[in-house]
Amino acid sequence: MEMPLNIYEQQGKNTRATWLVILVFIIFFALLGLGLDVFFLGFNPPDNYFPFATLFAIGVAGFSAYISYKDGANPVISATYAQPVDISNFKEKQFDNITEEMAISAGLPKPGAYVIADPDPNAFAAGTDQSNSVIAITTGLLDKLNREELQAVVAHEISHIKNYDTRLMTVIAALVGGIALLSEWAKRGFWFSSKSVRKSKFGKGGAGALLLIIWLVAVILAPIIAQILAMLVSRKREFLADASGAELTRNPLALAEALKKIEFSAEPTRSISYGTAHLCIIDPLGRRLNNKEGIVAEIFSSHPPVVKRISALREMAYRYTVPK
Amino acid sequence: MGLTIFFAIAGLITLWVIITYNGLISLKNQVLNGWKQIDVQLKRRHDLIPNLVNSVKGEMKFEKETLEKVIQARSQALGATGVADTAKKEDVLSNAIGKLLAVVENYPNLKASDNVKQLIEELTSTENKIGFARQFYNDIATKFNIKQQVFPSNIIASFFNFKNAELFEITVAKERETPSVDLNT
Question: In chain A, which residues fall in CATH 3.30.2010.10?
């Protein structure tokens, strides 16, 4: 058998990645602010003009990163209209029980169990700490999966929580939203105040115009780049969570079955939007791209092809049954 | 110069003793905590059993023996002391419950009852929790024991009189005998 995956290395990697994302986010805001200062507010260092927009942007970035970290899963819960489990409902109580079972097996505090009223089966985990994390599943998932398969899905999500994937993903989800919003705002700012560009020192020369164009392209592309980054990050982690989840339940085939069932009810999960797609066990947007291979799919899909994941799990099941 | 080296080495050794000792204490607490996890679930199971027995016994007049075995195993388990003894008696109880749940499958009336369905779900879940808690406890207890046995931390362990943790396990032969019961319905 292969060496078991080292959870501590993965945790360390995710912690570093989280800080990196926050840092990049703040730098992006600072550059955006600097652009505003230079091109629109007439920021000329010799004249001692105060870089108001830059400092303001850094302040906003730092504050919103802090808030999104503190807030944990709350924004995602309210964005998807997730409700805490109703323990008088048999299936929801079962889901709650399973969540506690898998938390025990992973040695974690029990995450909050939430249900989203949506007929399309899907599931995600969110939270910035092992103690403020939640697992949410759709009612469609609850209806379509049996106990064993539901356990496999919850184990997959618990693994995301255990190795801090959810922290990274939740912070990215919050910050990607922030970047999209800000980029929109900066673009509008440009249209409204394009006249003032001529006043500024940088606006005159060819170099100044070039800088302005680069800045504008960066502003326009930022949300797309942030989205690609989020997807890149999530795609790699799905295989790992599949494997460590299956290690918790010792039942890789149940997860393979669950993935098959989720995948083949192909309608998009309506309650889950673009910004939180990378948190889910299966791409909620039903993008066929995920199942293609090649460079375009590699860059733009948030999840690896389900067929590949299923065959990896089958291989794992085979290894379990063959004596060492 | 010689004195400086002496103090440096003495300092390093003291530091090592402190770190090793703290590591052992931390593991010991994790073991105790792991045991508590098992204990909570075992108690929960003991509480659930009378409820289940009461709600199925009306229908299952002809399965008196199965029911009695569960009740008997439960009272045996309640009197268990120590990890190994508990593991053994709880295993007997697990088997008895497994048989009972398998028999319930043959009674469509019972299976359809919401009350019984809920009790079975709770029992199944508790059963799973015991299994996972046991796995977790055994892993951490093994880690604790290994640290007490390997050189050089064994010096600290024996000096401070650390004791090996008992594993919560059932002999392999017995595990094989256990009929595989599908509890996932």
Answer: 75-165+233-321
Each residue's pLDDT tens digit, A122-166: 888 988 888 889 999 999 899 989 999 999 999 999 998 988 888
- Report the phi/psi class of residue A307: left, alpha or beta, with left for phi > 0 and alpha for psi in -120 to 50: alpha
- Region B20-26: mean pLDDT is 92
The answer to whether residue B133 neighbours chain A at the CB level (below 8 Å) is yes
Give the domain B26-169 fold.
Answer: de novo design (two linked rop proteins) (1.20.1440)
- Put simply, the answer to whether B125 touches A97 (Cβ < 8 Å) is yes
pLDDT at A268: 65
Contacting residues of A for B184, CB less than 8 Å apart? 146-148
Q: What is the mean pLDDT of residues B148-160?
A: 87
DSSP assignments along B77-143, one per residue: HHT--SHHHHHHHHHHHHHHHHHHHHHHTT-HHHHH-HHHHHHHHHHHHHHHHHHHHHHHHHHHHHH
User: pTM of this prediction?
Assistant: 0.76
Domains of chain B by residue range: 26-169
Q: Which residues of A are marked as active site? A: 157
Tell me if the domain spanning A75-165+233-321 has CATH number 1.20.1250.20. no
